[in-house]
Protein backbone atom coordinates (compact mmCIF):
# COMPACT_ATOMS: atom_id res chain seq x y z
CA UNK A 1 0.00 0.00 0.00
CA UNK A 2 1.49 3.36 -1.01
CA UNK A 3 1.26 6.49 1.15
CA UNK A 4 -1.17 8.06 -1.34
CA UNK A 5 -3.62 5.17 -0.90
CA UNK A 6 -3.27 5.30 2.87
CA UNK A 7 -3.85 9.10 2.85
CA UNK A 8 -6.95 8.80 0.69
CA UNK A 9 -8.40 6.11 2.94
CA UNK A 10 -7.67 8.18 6.03
CA UNK A 11 -9.26 11.29 4.44
CA UNK A 12 -12.46 9.40 3.58
CA UNK A 13 -12.85 8.44 7.22
CA UNK A 14 -12.26 12.02 8.41
CA UNK A 15 -15.11 13.34 6.26
CA UNK A 16 -17.60 11.44 8.40
CA UNK A 17 -17.08 13.59 11.49
CA UNK A 18 -14.82 16.57 10.61
CA UNK A 19 -15.34 19.84 8.80
CA UNK A 20 -13.33 20.33 5.55
CA UNK A 21 -11.20 23.13 6.96
CA UNK A 22 -10.12 21.12 10.00
CA UNK A 23 -9.64 18.00 7.90
CA UNK A 24 -7.11 19.81 5.67
CA UNK A 25 -5.10 20.83 8.74
CA UNK A 26 -5.00 17.22 9.95
CA UNK A 27 -3.95 15.93 6.53
CA UNK A 28 -1.25 18.57 6.30
CA UNK A 29 0.13 17.47 9.67
CA UNK A 30 0.02 13.86 8.46
CA UNK A 31 1.99 14.78 5.32
CA UNK A 32 4.68 16.46 7.37
CA UNK A 33 5.02 13.45 9.69
CA UNK A 34 5.01 10.99 6.79
CA UNK A 35 8.21 12.48 5.38
CA UNK A 36 10.11 11.00 8.33
CA UNK A 37 8.75 7.44 7.92
CA UNK A 38 8.74 4.68 5.32
CA UNK A 39 5.26 3.33 4.67
CA UNK A 40 5.12 -0.45 4.04
CA UNK A 41 2.14 -2.79 3.65
CA UNK A 42 1.34 -4.98 6.62
CA UNK A 43 2.68 -8.52 6.28
CA UNK A 44 -0.14 -10.90 7.16
CA UNK A 45 1.76 -14.05 6.16
CA UNK A 46 2.36 -16.66 8.85
CA UNK A 47 5.89 -16.29 10.16
CA UNK A 48 7.41 -19.72 10.43
CA UNK A 49 10.40 -20.41 12.65
CA UNK A 50 12.21 -23.14 10.77
CA UNK A 51 13.91 -24.40 13.93
CA UNK A 52 10.46 -25.34 15.27
CA UNK A 53 10.23 -27.90 12.44
CA UNK A 54 13.53 -29.62 13.22
CA UNK A 55 11.90 -32.24 15.52
CA UNK A 56 9.44 -33.05 12.72
CA UNK A 57 12.28 -33.64 10.27
CA UNK A 58 14.05 -35.90 12.77
CA UNK A 59 10.80 -37.79 13.40
CA UNK A 60 10.29 -38.38 9.66
CA UNK A 61 13.88 -39.56 9.35
CA UNK A 62 13.33 -42.13 12.11
CA UNK A 63 10.11 -43.31 10.46
CA UNK A 64 11.83 -43.74 7.12
CA UNK A 65 14.10 -46.34 8.73
CA UNK A 66 10.94 -48.36 9.49
CA UNK A 67 10.48 -48.77 5.72
CA UNK A 68 7.23 -46.80 5.57
CA UNK A 69 5.91 -45.88 2.14
CA UNK A 70 7.10 -42.58 0.68
CA UNK A 71 3.50 -41.37 0.43
CA UNK A 72 2.94 -42.11 4.11
CA UNK A 73 6.07 -40.21 5.12
CA UNK A 74 5.05 -37.22 3.01
CA UNK A 75 1.60 -37.23 4.61
CA UNK A 76 3.12 -37.35 8.12
CA UNK A 77 5.44 -34.45 7.32
CA UNK A 78 2.66 -32.37 5.76
CA UNK A 79 0.31 -33.01 8.70
CA UNK A 80 2.86 -32.30 11.43
CA UNK A 81 4.32 -29.26 9.65
CA UNK A 82 0.89 -27.64 9.52
CA UNK A 83 0.41 -28.39 13.19
CA UNK A 84 3.78 -26.99 14.30
CA UNK A 85 3.40 -23.92 12.10
CA UNK A 86 0.00 -23.24 13.67
CA UNK A 87 1.48 -23.59 17.19
CA UNK A 88 4.30 -21.07 16.52
CA UNK A 89 6.22 -22.25 19.58
CA UNK A 90 8.78 -24.90 20.56
CA UNK A 91 7.43 -28.41 21.13
CA UNK A 92 8.18 -28.26 24.88
CA UNK A 93 5.80 -25.30 25.20
CA UNK A 94 2.84 -26.95 23.46
CA UNK A 95 0.08 -27.95 25.88
CA UNK A 96 -2.93 -30.25 25.76
CA UNK A 97 -5.15 -27.17 25.52
CA UNK A 98 -3.24 -26.01 22.42
CA UNK A 99 -3.78 -29.39 20.80
CA UNK A 100 -7.50 -29.53 21.63
CA UNK A 101 -8.03 -26.05 20.19
CA UNK A 102 -6.10 -26.98 17.05
CA UNK A 103 -8.13 -30.17 16.52
CA UNK A 104 -11.40 -28.30 17.02
CA UNK A 105 -10.45 -25.46 14.64
CA UNK A 106 -9.18 -27.93 12.05
CA UNK A 107 -12.47 -29.80 12.06
CA UNK A 108 -14.65 -26.66 11.92
CA UNK A 109 -12.69 -24.89 9.19
CA UNK A 110 -12.18 -27.95 6.97
CA UNK A 111 -15.39 -29.83 7.66
CA UNK A 112 -13.61 -33.14 8.22
CA UNK A 113 -15.19 -36.29 9.66
CA UNK A 114 -14.68 -37.44 13.24
CA UNK A 115 -12.65 -40.38 11.93
CA UNK A 116 -10.28 -38.00 10.10
CA UNK A 117 -9.96 -35.85 13.20
CA UNK A 118 -9.04 -38.96 15.21
CA UNK A 119 -6.35 -39.90 12.68
CA UNK A 120 -4.93 -36.39 13.08
CA UNK A 121 -4.94 -36.74 16.88
CA UNK A 122 -3.20 -40.13 16.71
CA UNK A 123 -0.54 -38.74 14.36
CA UNK A 124 0.19 -35.83 16.70
CA UNK A 125 0.26 -38.14 19.73
CA UNK A 126 2.68 -40.53 18.04
CA UNK A 127 4.96 -37.61 17.21
CA UNK A 128 5.03 -36.40 20.81
CA UNK A 129 5.54 -39.95 22.08
CA UNK A 130 8.62 -40.19 19.86
CA UNK A 131 9.83 -36.78 21.10
CA UNK A 132 9.50 -37.95 24.70
CA UNK A 133 11.32 -41.23 23.98
CA UNK A 134 14.13 -39.24 22.39
CA UNK A 135 14.38 -36.93 25.41
CA UNK A 136 13.23 -33.84 23.51
CA UNK A 137 10.32 -33.25 25.92
CA UNK A 138 9.58 -34.36 29.48
CA UNK A 139 5.95 -35.40 28.96
CA UNK A 140 3.50 -36.02 26.15
CA UNK A 141 0.86 -33.25 26.09
CA UNK A 142 -1.32 -35.28 23.73
CA UNK A 143 -1.68 -38.06 26.30
CA UNK A 144 -4.22 -35.83 28.03
CA UNK A 145 -6.24 -35.32 24.83
CA UNK A 146 -8.99 -37.92 24.75
CA UNK A 147 -9.68 -40.02 21.67
CA UNK A 148 -12.36 -38.71 19.33
CA UNK A 149 -15.58 -40.72 19.55
CA UNK A 150 -16.51 -42.10 16.15
CA UNK A 151 -20.00 -43.18 15.23
CA UNK A 152 -19.84 -46.83 14.19
CA UNK A 153 -22.02 -46.40 11.11
CA UNK A 154 -19.48 -46.91 8.35
CA UNK A 155 -17.98 -49.93 6.62
CA UNK A 156 -20.77 -52.25 7.70
CA UNK A 157 -20.11 -55.79 6.49
CA UNK A 158 -22.30 -57.74 4.11
CA UNK A 159 -24.31 -60.60 5.48
CA UNK A 160 -23.59 -64.06 4.08
CA UNK A 161 -26.81 -63.83 2.08
CA UNK A 162 -25.77 -60.48 0.59
CA UNK A 163 -22.38 -61.93 -0.35
CA UNK A 164 -24.12 -64.74 -2.24
CA UNK A 165 -26.29 -62.15 -4.02
CA UNK A 166 -23.13 -60.32 -5.13
CA UNK A 167 -21.60 -63.56 -6.36
CA UNK A 168 -24.71 -64.43 -8.35
CA UNK A 169 -24.79 -60.95 -9.94
CA UNK A 170 -21.33 -61.28 -11.51
CA UNK A 171 -21.68 -61.13 -15.27
CA UNK A 172 -18.36 -62.57 -16.45
CA UNK A 173 -15.28 -64.51 -15.24
CA UNK A 174 -13.36 -61.30 -14.53
CA UNK A 175 -16.04 -59.98 -12.18
CA UNK A 176 -16.32 -63.35 -10.43
CA UNK A 177 -12.56 -63.53 -9.95
CA UNK A 178 -12.47 -60.01 -8.51
CA UNK A 179 -15.26 -60.75 -6.03
CA UNK A 180 -13.73 -64.03 -4.90
CA UNK A 181 -10.23 -62.58 -4.53
CA UNK A 182 -11.51 -59.57 -2.60
CA UNK A 183 -13.43 -61.82 -0.22
CA UNK A 184 -10.90 -64.65 0.17
CA UNK A 185 -7.78 -62.49 0.67
CA UNK A 186 -9.39 -59.54 2.50
CA UNK A 187 -6.74 -57.49 0.68
CA UNK A 188 -6.71 -53.73 0.38
CA UNK A 189 -7.78 -52.22 -2.96
CA UNK A 190 -4.24 -51.17 -3.86
CA UNK A 191 -2.96 -54.64 -2.96
CA UNK A 192 -5.45 -56.31 -5.30
CA UNK A 193 -4.50 -53.94 -8.12
CA UNK A 194 -0.82 -54.82 -7.67
CA UNK A 195 -1.29 -58.60 -7.56
CA UNK A 196 0.70 -60.49 -10.17
CA UNK A 197 -0.04 -63.90 -11.66
CA UNK A 198 3.45 -65.07 -10.70
CA UNK A 199 2.66 -64.36 -7.03
CA UNK A 200 0.01 -67.11 -6.98
CA UNK A 201 0.77 -70.60 -5.75
CA UNK A 202 -2.14 -72.67 -7.02
CA UNK A 203 -0.96 -75.76 -5.11
CA UNK A 204 -0.63 -74.06 -1.71
CA UNK A 205 -3.61 -71.80 -2.52
CA UNK A 206 -1.73 -68.64 -1.57
CA UNK A 207 -0.80 -65.33 -3.11
CA UNK A 208 2.08 -63.16 -1.95
CA UNK A 209 1.17 -59.51 -1.44
CA UNK A 210 4.47 -57.85 -2.24
CA UNK A 211 3.40 -54.24 -1.83
CA UNK A 212 1.29 -54.11 1.29
CA UNK A 213 0.80 -51.05 3.45
CA UNK A 214 4.14 -49.63 4.51
CA UNK A 215 5.88 -51.73 1.85
CA UNK A 216 5.41 -54.90 3.91
CA UNK A 217 5.10 -58.35 2.33
CA UNK A 218 2.62 -60.92 3.56
CA UNK A 219 0.92 -64.08 2.38
CA UNK A 220 -2.81 -64.07 1.62
CA UNK A 221 -4.90 -67.17 1.19
CA UNK A 222 -7.18 -68.30 -1.61
CA UNK A 223 -10.17 -70.52 -0.94
CA UNK A 224 -11.47 -73.06 -3.48
CA UNK A 225 -13.95 -70.61 -5.01
CA UNK A 226 -11.21 -68.03 -5.55
CA UNK A 227 -8.86 -70.57 -7.17
CA UNK A 228 -11.56 -71.76 -9.58
CA UNK A 229 -12.63 -68.19 -10.41
CA UNK A 230 -9.05 -67.12 -11.11
CA UNK A 231 -8.42 -70.09 -13.39
CA UNK A 232 -11.62 -69.41 -15.34
CA UNK A 233 -10.71 -65.74 -15.69
CA UNK A 234 -7.15 -66.41 -16.85
CA UNK A 235 -8.46 -68.74 -19.57
CA UNK A 236 -10.24 -65.72 -21.10
CA UNK A 237 -7.07 -63.59 -21.18
CA UNK A 238 -5.22 -63.13 -24.46
CA UNK A 239 -2.63 -60.60 -23.24
CA UNK A 240 0.84 -60.90 -21.80
CA UNK A 241 0.37 -58.64 -18.78
CA UNK A 242 1.99 -59.86 -15.57
CA UNK A 243 -0.82 -58.46 -13.45
CA UNK A 244 -3.70 -60.62 -12.25
CA UNK A 245 -6.37 -58.03 -13.03
CA UNK A 246 -6.10 -55.80 -16.08
CA UNK A 247 -8.13 -53.01 -17.58
CA UNK A 248 -10.31 -54.37 -20.41
CA UNK A 249 -10.37 -51.08 -22.32
CA UNK A 250 -7.66 -50.05 -24.78
CA UNK A 251 -5.23 -52.04 -26.87
CA UNK A 252 -2.54 -52.41 -24.20
CA UNK A 253 -3.68 -54.26 -21.11
CA UNK A 254 -2.57 -52.22 -18.10
CA UNK A 255 -3.14 -53.27 -14.52
CA UNK A 256 -6.53 -52.45 -13.07
CA UNK A 257 -6.47 -49.12 -11.23
CA UNK A 258 -8.25 -48.35 -7.96
CA UNK A 259 -11.00 -46.30 -9.59
CA UNK A 260 -11.75 -48.98 -12.19
CA UNK A 261 -11.95 -51.68 -9.51
CA UNK A 262 -14.39 -49.58 -7.51
CA UNK A 263 -16.49 -49.08 -10.65
CA UNK A 264 -16.66 -52.82 -11.31
CA UNK A 265 -17.91 -53.49 -7.77
CA UNK A 266 -20.41 -50.66 -8.10
CA UNK A 267 -21.82 -52.11 -11.31
CA UNK A 268 -22.13 -55.59 -9.81
CA UNK A 269 -23.89 -54.25 -6.73
CA UNK A 270 -26.33 -52.25 -8.89
CA UNK A 271 -27.69 -55.54 -10.26
CA UNK A 272 -28.71 -56.71 -6.79
CA UNK A 273 -31.07 -55.76 -3.97
CA UNK A 274 -28.23 -55.67 -1.44
CA UNK A 275 -28.95 -52.98 1.15
CA UNK A 276 -25.39 -52.66 2.48
CA UNK A 277 -23.28 -49.97 0.83
CA UNK A 278 -20.80 -52.23 -0.95
CA UNK A 279 -17.33 -51.03 -1.94
CA UNK A 280 -14.11 -53.01 -2.44
CA UNK A 281 -13.12 -52.06 1.10
CA UNK A 282 -16.36 -53.53 2.48
CA UNK A 283 -15.18 -56.96 1.35
CA UNK A 284 -12.26 -56.56 3.77
CA UNK A 285 -14.66 -55.82 6.62
CA UNK A 286 -16.96 -58.63 5.54
CA UNK A 287 -14.20 -61.25 5.44
CA UNK A 288 -12.85 -60.31 8.86
CA UNK A 289 -16.35 -60.30 10.37
CA UNK A 290 -17.26 -63.69 8.87
CA UNK A 291 -13.94 -65.06 10.14
CA UNK A 292 -14.64 -63.88 13.68
CA UNK A 293 -18.18 -65.27 13.56
CA UNK A 294 -16.79 -68.64 12.46
CA UNK A 295 -14.43 -68.75 15.43
CA UNK A 296 -11.16 -67.52 13.93
CA UNK A 297 -8.98 -66.03 16.72
CA UNK A 298 -8.65 -62.26 16.53
CA UNK A 299 -4.84 -62.56 16.40
CA UNK A 300 -5.11 -64.63 13.23
CA UNK A 301 -7.58 -62.15 11.72
CA UNK A 302 -5.08 -59.40 12.50
CA UNK A 303 -2.37 -61.32 10.63
CA UNK A 304 -4.71 -61.99 7.70
CA UNK A 305 -5.50 -58.29 7.35
CA UNK A 306 -1.87 -57.24 7.76
CA UNK A 307 -2.55 -54.96 10.72
CA UNK A 308 0.29 -53.85 12.97
CA UNK A 309 -2.07 -53.22 15.89
CA UNK A 310 -4.93 -55.40 17.05
CA UNK A 311 -6.98 -52.28 17.86
CA UNK A 312 -7.18 -51.61 14.13
CA UNK A 313 -8.46 -55.13 13.53
CA UNK A 314 -11.20 -54.64 16.12
CA UNK A 315 -12.44 -51.61 14.19
CA UNK A 316 -12.68 -53.69 11.02
CA UNK A 317 -14.19 -56.90 12.35
CA UNK A 318 -17.75 -56.43 13.56
CA UNK A 319 -18.28 -58.95 16.34
CA UNK A 320 -21.98 -59.84 16.30
CA UNK A 321 -24.16 -60.60 19.33
CA UNK A 322 -24.79 -64.06 17.88
CA UNK A 323 -21.05 -64.75 17.84
CA UNK A 324 -20.70 -63.62 21.46
CA UNK A 325 -23.70 -65.73 22.48
CA UNK A 326 -22.31 -68.84 20.78
CA UNK A 327 -18.90 -68.34 22.37
CA UNK A 328 -20.52 -67.79 25.77
CA UNK A 329 -22.43 -71.07 25.47
CA UNK A 330 -19.21 -72.81 24.41
CA UNK A 331 -16.78 -71.41 26.95
CA UNK A 332 -18.97 -70.28 29.91
CA UNK A 333 -20.75 -73.57 30.56
Textual characterization of the structure:
- The protein is mainly alpha-helical and about 325 residues long.
- The protein has three domains: about 5-35; about 50-145, Tyrosine recombinase, N-terminal domain (DNA polymerase, domain 1, Orthogonal Bundle); about 160-320, Intergrase catalytic core (hpI Integrase, Chain A, Orthogonal Bundle).
- It is built from 15 helices and three strands.
- The chain has helices at about 5-15, 20-35, 55-65, 70-85, 95-110, 115-135, 160-170, 175-185, 190-195, 225-235, 260-270, 280-295, 300-305, 310-315, 320-330, and strands at about 200, 205-210, 220.
- The protein has a three-stranded antiparallel β-sheet with strand order 1-2-3, with no helix packed on it.
- Residues about 45-50 have low confidence and may be disordered.
Features:
DNA polymerase, domain 1, 3-stranded antiparallel β-sheet, 3 domains, hpI Integrase, Chain A, 55% helix, mainly alpha, 333 residues, 15 helices
Amino acid sequence: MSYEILRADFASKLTEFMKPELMQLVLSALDQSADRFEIKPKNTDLIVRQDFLEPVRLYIASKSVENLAVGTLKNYYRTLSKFINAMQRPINEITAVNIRVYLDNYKRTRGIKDSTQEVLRVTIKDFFTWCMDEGLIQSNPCSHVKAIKIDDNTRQPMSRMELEMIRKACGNPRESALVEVLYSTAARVSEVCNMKISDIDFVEKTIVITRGKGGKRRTAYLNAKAILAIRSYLETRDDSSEYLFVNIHGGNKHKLCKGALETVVKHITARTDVQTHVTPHVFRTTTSTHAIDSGMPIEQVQRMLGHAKIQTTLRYAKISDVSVKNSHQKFIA
